[in-house]
Design goal:
Two copies of one chain form a homodimer. The first copy, chain A, is built from 14 helices and ten strands. Chain A is an alpha/beta fold. Chain A has two domains: about 230 residues, Rossmann fold; about 70 residues, Rossmann fold (3-Layer(aba) Sandwich). In chain A, α4 links the parallel β3 and β4. In chain A, α3 crosses α7 and α8 runs parallel beside α10. The longest helix of chain A has 20 residues. Chain A is globular, with a radius of gyration of 20 Å. The mean pLDDT of chain A is about 95. Chains A, B: Belongs to the serine/threonine dehydratase family. Chains A, B: One of its GO terms (molecular function) is serine racemase activity. Chains A, B: Pfam families: PALP (PF00291).
Amino acid sequence: MIDHRVSVGDIRNAADRIKGYVHRTPTLTCSTLDNLAANPDVGLKLFFKCDNFQKVGAFKIRGATNAILSLLSSHPDRSPSEFSVITHSSGNHAQALAYASQALGVRCHVVMPSNSASVKKDAVRGYGAMVTECVPTLQAREDGVNAIISEMRASGKEITFIPPYDDVRVIAGQGTMALELMEQAASLDAPLDILIAPVGGGGMLSGCAVAAKGVDPGIWVVGAEPAGADDAYRSFNAKKFIPSVDPQTIADGLRTSLGEITFPLIMANVDAIHTVSEVEIVRAMKLVYERMKLVVEPSAAVGLAVALYGSEFKEQIRILASKKQKQDLNVGIIFSGGNVDLANLSTLFDIAGNN
Amino acid sequence: MIDHRVSVGDIRNAADRIKGYVHRTPTLTCSTLDNLAANPDVGLKLFFKCDNFQKVGAFKIRGATNAILSLLSSHPDRSPSEFSVITHSSGNHAQALAYASQALGVRCHVVMPSNSASVKKDAVRGYGAMVTECVPTLQAREDGVNAIISEMRASGKEITFIPPYDDVRVIAGQGTMALELMEQAASLDAPLDILIAPVGGGGMLSGCAVAAKGVDPGIWVVGAEPAGADDAYRSFNAKKFIPSVDPQTIADGLRTSLGEITFPLIMANVDAIHTVSEVEIVRAMKLVYERMKLVVEPSAAVGLAVALYGSEFKEQIRILASKKQKQDLNVGIIFSGGNVDLANLSTLFDIAGNN
């Protein structure tokens, strides 16, 4: 029986482990967005954790680096070149695992759907990983991974599967973002009252929630999800796992279902999940470009969209502010990545209209 | 006879004056861009001064704020509401002067060409300035300003013209960017060998050159200009003022000619002016979005374009590195602003092709 629990201690260990391999990204503020997020009776001071500035352009490098370093430390007698890792992914996790493998001297295989953008396949190969293409179904991806694992083991070589999110080492790595954000907000004399993180497979949200509650059990932790891919919202409220069926959202990083490990961690450590529409996501994203002069991907703007437009969220903060007897609340928001297709940006912004 | 000299002392005074009214913007680095800028025998370490994060999205607020505060301090017996300022501009200077006027409690008039984007006219009005429209010629703009000045003076009211760049208070304000950048690079143990600033009217380049040479007379100061608007390049090399005729460049902030005050300051303090093509400007801009995850306007990318693609520049740095007996040079680059039309961004990036 594998232990699927993740503690704040695991996340602190991950932070020590990955230090020097990943960036400690800055936390930025924007008074214009604070004004736009203000409510009649509660002001919000927003603190943005900029993992769009992270290596490979997204937070995924944190979990990937922690997973590989954990693997290496479990066999300190072997050299990194004796290790191989494998995953299947069409997005940021593939690039992150390939980059981390190259940096740490480990071999890396990635099974990618044949309809992945060639720029993404080239990037993964550019980091020295071996790419195997498969037909674009989850079954084919898993079959591809299992075939390579069997082949390697048949020839006496060890290889370790690193899942994109449903893995305690990956979750602990992603949680380091929240540790840093809480320290950075506290150093600005603004300890966080609320933390908002996007939720797709739940690796980031579960890790950040464990970290945040571990540092301050009183913090209110919110998952932010596109209404068009609201499996986490429905699972959370039904208190049982409901998979994602035909998710429709431009936030391509958030189309996956929760996992067996991430779902119980979210149930235990998250206070609410709020959803936002596609137009709200693009409006929030456009404001980040216009007002903060930052490039973020659609998935990264979902947290800000909740703070600006989420009606359930606005109701919650009224209750929270009244309970805490505060007129202003400090809200941490995760900008998870900045890997956006520049060729489609104008088309994307058209969705927002003139706001 | 008016004194048209600007000293590093004037720029230090401007820095003290505008402190608290404008942002001290961060200086960022990017190892991927350092690698792309490296030459066979000379490495470059790039330090980007991010005035795209400045208030109103561009450096122009520095000069406008210094000009108004200088005006107020010359009549300490009067209240700010007794002062009026006026300018003509279709771009960042109009918004900057309007914003600074509102912040300092001064009245502001802006003469804007009737073909200015309505979003820009609305923004200027949004900062409380009075907008007068005119036909889109320089003559009509100047006539519009003079008519308002005459009218105000006829009714016994004082009003001061604040030019967009050819003004010692404006130049001193823009120079504060270079003071900050040199301090920030030095605090990273990387004193600058080279400073690159874009050049249009020359307010920023002249101010930054005076500041840089005042702090370190050995620094090499470079003006970066679009080849399609190369009046500064031609004037500098001919050692006489040659106006801009029908400039053609997407770098809309750099279409103006040098001024009577900025040109002599540039001749005295700048070491070279290098030009780059439109494709080079867009390629550099695209790299900033892709690799640094920052939103910059085309004018702001011209300095990086010189560092990446300028053939005369590459020749110069070989000589400079050899003279200094250094293998790596520290290069400061000004990102002047981030006010770009998001609706046209994809079309713009198409110019760059796949790089």
